[in-house]
Amino acid sequence: MSSTAPNLIAAVSEARQWDRLMELAKLGAITGADGEPGVNRACLTPLDREARRLVISWAEGLGLTVSVDEIGNLFLRHEGTEAGAAPVLTGSHMDTQPNGGRFDGIWGVIAGLEAVQAIREAGIATRRPIEVVAWTNEEGGRFAPGCMGSMAYAHYKPANAWDAVADAEGITFGQALAEHRAAEAGLTHRPLGGKPFAYVEAHIEQGPRLEAEGADIGVVTGIQGSRWFIVELRGETAHAGTAPVSLRKDAVQDMIRAITALNALMTDPTDVLRFTVGQIEVLPNTSNTVADRVRFTIDFRHPDKDVLLANGDAIEPTIRSAVKNCEVTVTERFHALPVEFDALVTDAVEDAATAQGLSSLRIPSGAFHDAQFMVPLCPSGMIFVPCRNGVSHNPAEYSTPGQLAAGARVLAAVLTDLANR
Ligand code: GLV
Ligand code: MN
Ligand code: MN
């Protein structure tokens, strides 16, 4: 049970945290359809590096030690009093969706920095070190899938597993990472991986529940499973005016058959299952030519491992039996099983919220997060704060300075608690 030092709570600055978020939101600023201020800052780009330099300058100003690993994960370390004690790790990611908001990911990094700054300014010594991490490529927007940095840290995959993944311009992850590492060659290097004592990630909820239920803090109980696939259909081009329909190998028509069959497979009267086709490429993409190629993505999620495995494994056979004329290739590119967070962290979050007079709600996460890959390494958990209308991956994404400050205060208390165990 935590009893938070009042000076720690007072040392968390709502204005400083908000100002930092707004400074960072200038890097990659975009305007949404209704004029909302969003951000497009893809990973391993010059903008990403500019944002990192800003965060590094704040961390160095605080006296934190900065280091990077071979996949570009960035660590900002506050020392503990006990030499060799395993650190408490906190953080999130700094990359955004192409049409993203100002808070998804970056708030978890800035909240970690704010919490550490408050701990230092309050003169609180912690037994364990606290490290703030910014994971590389959580979003998977430029290079799919997401969570590459945390997967590599957790040795779930080797760091070079995605070297050949190309972005929309044909630049590979391997090339972008090499360029990025050269640009950050002046930073101290650390080995990939580690064995933290615990991991805590602060994030906006990205869903509507906390706001609807009037809760200040989400005590995140776990994360549902996700599987990502790419489907490629290969037919034959033909003249739209002359080729008889019966002789065509029309990739668009086969895509419609495939998605219709998948919609039937994924029908869930309880509305728990999430099935999304979010990206479709058609070639040659002209109105008077029958398309010979279609490539579409599948994002499938479920909290129940058995459903995730059974329905996910049924995707390829369902597509194969639905298409009539095209050759089919189905490639799975992300496979994250559902996880449950550890009571060490969930209880610490709930206790800290209660001790600060904040209302809290235990909720699972529908979005995936780097925390998913920390679960096998150490007791892990997350802190959510409400976001307006539950909107995220959208420039309209918004949490108030006060909601974010409440989250940072809970994070500061949780980090202090865990770092003294
Ligand atoms: C993370 O951005 C997700 O898609 O859940
Ligand atoms: Mn995120
Ligand atoms: Mn996101």
Mean pLDDT over the full residue set: 97
Radius of gyration: 23 Å
Strand content: 15-25%
Identify the overall geometry.
globular
Unreliable residue runs: none
CATH topology of the largest domain: Aminopeptidase
The tally of domains stands at 2
Structural class designation: alpha/beta
Give the count of helical stretches: 12
Main sheet characteristics = 10 strands, mixed
CATH homologous superfamily grouping of the largest domain: Zn peptidases
Q: Give the C-level CATH assignment of the largest domain.
A: Alpha Beta
CATH architecture of the largest domain: 3-Layer(aba) Sandwich
Ligand inventory: glyoxylic acid, manganese (II) ion
From the N-terminal CA to the C-terminal CA, the straight-line distance is 12 Å
What is the count of β-strands? 19
Helix content: 25-40%
EC number: 3.5.1.87
GO molecular function, one term: metal ion binding
Domain Peptidase M20 dimerisation: 222-306
Pfam families: M20_dimer, Peptidase_M20
Give a quick set of tags describing it:
421 residues; alpha/beta; Aminopeptidase; Alpha-Beta Plaits; 2 domains; ten-stranded mixed sheet; five-stranded antiparallel sheet; 12 helices; 19 strands; 23% strand; binds glyoxylic acid; binds manganese (II) ion
Structural commentary:
It comes from Muricoccus pecuniae. Zn(2+) 1 binds at residues 93, 104, 203. This protein has 421 residues and is an alpha/beta fold. The chain folds into two domains: 6-224 and 338-419, 3-Layer(aba) Sandwich (Aminopeptidase); 225-336, Alpha-Beta Plaits. The protein has helices spanning 6-11, 14-25, 46-62, 106-121, 148-153, 173-183, 209-213, 251-265, 305-322, 343-355, 371-374, 401-419; strands spanning 29-31, 37-39, 65-68, 74-78, 88-93, 130-135, 188-189, 198-204, 217-223, 225-234, 238-239, 274-276, 280-283, 289-290, 293-302, 327-336, 339-340, 360-365, 380-385. The strands form four sheets. Strands 3, 4, 5, 6, 7, 8, 9, 17, 18 and 19 form a ten-stranded mixed β-sheet that branches. Strands 10, 12, 13, 15 and 16 form a five-stranded antiparallel β-sheet that branches. The longest helix has 19 residues, at 401-419.
